[in-house]
Design brief:
The protein is an alpha+beta fold. The protein has one domain: Amidase signature (AS) domain (Amidase signature (AS) enzymes, Alpha-Beta Complex).
């Protein structure tokens, strides 16, 4: 196993103890990028100062200074998140030469924690879509099967992470953009609860649908990155305190005895691939071996699907409001979302908010008797990378082109934390992901349960990258 395949928390400890230098870790990382990225197309822009950043970590350690909890860890930043003086295109030809003059808040925090910013990872145009391709950089391939989609919209981050090109990946999640690629690429991710991680700068300060969040090769790595990213930001009107909160400890801890878990196979009512459902069910029921109490949960959240579509349209029109005069230059996914948003009526938006309120009440009542809910991330396996989206779900045509991501987007509407963790490999040898939904502001619960699933169901690493260690 190459050093770059080790979990991020182990790499951090090696750097902090000076058993390896940040520059040595970066050199191994760059070698892996040179080996793998031409095949996968996951990292699209390199940070020209990456070697200076690694050197600064080593110099801090040599002086006896603490470089931070992410000391020397190579991190990839999604190409919709600004990084100062590094090209950030948003996957759009409108911004193909755009170079921001400031870091996003999450990037500032990662740098302050000692992370080394390797570069930008691929995503769809303005993160619209769950298959990672755009007119600027092309398609990102799945490291488990390069004929398949890596998912999206944080597909570049997930593929780079799974193959050791980075140790941690930053991403965003509106309808599943962290969880979908985590599932397709066999890594872990977390959609944090609303306000835990600031998303700034942003085109919509009061956005309660999209969040920024972490991905890692292990749940403990996700927690380590979250610890560095979390906390109220000065530019964000929505924020949570992290005082006394220990995300890393939560991921390293055992399940509380008697934890009450509800498993639901198809909460969004679109159907599910039988192989995927069987793997997710087995993994959820395996929690009983760790002294959890697992029960079957009947949920019908189909009423959320039209509500999400209405609010998704509003989201795109709001975030891209300044660019509406140039909307004829948008790609088809973005253009269609903007068109749908502009056609949405106030009555439809009101109905969507009513549905969202109904969902919140339902979840609040469920969490009076449950500690978490577990459900499949995806209803379909990774599909051919040339397709924008799959043709059918469980053999049935979809009502809308985003129906296939309903298993993730229905939970986005709650504002709750949702972890994604590998549950196993299907009959095609492709990863299957499981979601863990926790009660309000209980991100630690999602991390604890996801880490337990990871221990019970390790899947190893993909064939692209040259190694296949267990987590």
């Amino acid at each position: 196993m190459s050093i770059v395949d080790k979990p991020a928390h182990e790499l951090r400890d090696l750097v902090r103890s000076r058993q390896i230098s940040a520059r040595e870790l970066l050199a191994a990382t760059l070698a892996r990028i040179e080996q793998v990225n031409p095949t996968l197309n996951a990292i699209v822009t390199m940070n020209p100062r990456v070697e200076d950043e690694a050197r600064a970590v080593d110099e801090a350690l040599a002086r006896g200074d603490d470089p931070g909890p992410l000391a020397g860890l190579p991190v990839g930043i999604k190409d919709v998140t600004p990084v100062a003086e590094v090209r950030t295109t948003f996957g759009s030809t409108l911004f193909k030469d755009h170079v921001p003059d400031r870091d996003a808040t999450v990037v500032e925090r990662l740098r302050a924690a000692g992370a080394v910013i390797v570069g930008k990872t691929n995503c769809p145009e303005f993160a619209a879509g769950a298959n990672t391709f755009n007119a600027v950089f092309g398609r990102t391939l799945n490291p488990w099967d390069t004929s398949k989609s890596a998912g999206g919209s944080t597909g570049g981050g997930a593929a780079a992470l799974a193959t050791g090109m980075i140790a941690l990946a930053e991403g965003t999640d509106l309808g599943g953009s962290l969880r979908i690629p985590a599932s397709f690429c066999g890594v872990a991710g977390l959609r944090p609860s609303i306000g835990l991680v600031p998303t700034s700068p942003t085109g919509w300060a009061w956005d309660t649908l999209q969040v920024s969040g972490p991905m890692g090769r292990t749940v403990r790595d996700v927690a380590l990155m979250l610890q560095a990213m979390a906390g109220a930001g000065p530019e964000a009107p929505l924020g949570q305190s992290t005082s006394g909160r220990d995300f890393v400890g939560a991921a390293a801890g055992n399940l509380p005895a008697g934890l009450r878990v509800g498993y639901c196979s198809d909460p969004s009512g679109i159907g599910i691939d039988a192989d995927i459902e069987g793997i997710c069910r087995d993994s959820a029921m395996a929690l009983a071996s760790a002294d959890a109490k697992v029960e079957e949960l009947a949920l019908d959240l189909a009423f959320v699907r039209p509500a999400f579509l209405a609010l998704r349209g509003l989201w795109f029109v709001t975030h891209l409001h300044a660019l509406l005069p140039d909307r004829e230059r948008f790609g088809p996914n973005v253009a269609n979302n903007v068109k749908a948003g502009l056609a949405t009526t106030v009555e439809q938006l009101a109905a969507a908010e009513q549905a969202r309120g109904r969902l919140w009440t339902l979840c609040r009542e469920l969490f009076e008797r449950l500690d978490c809910i577990v459900t499949p991330c995806m209803a379909v396996p990774p599909f051919p990378v040339e397709q924008n989206y799959p043709d059918t779900v469980a053999g049935k045509p979809m009502a809308t082109y985003v129906d296939w991501i309903a298993p993730t987007f229905v939970w986005s509407m709650t504002g709750l934390t949702v972890a994604a963790v590998p549950a196993g490999l299907d009959g095609r040898g492709l990863p299957v992901g499981l979601q863990v939904i926790a009660p309000p502001y209980r991100d630690e619960v999602a991390l604890t349960v996801a880490a337990a699933i990871e221990r019970l169901r390790p899947i190893g690493r993909p064939p692209v990258g040259g190694t296949n260690p267990t987590p």
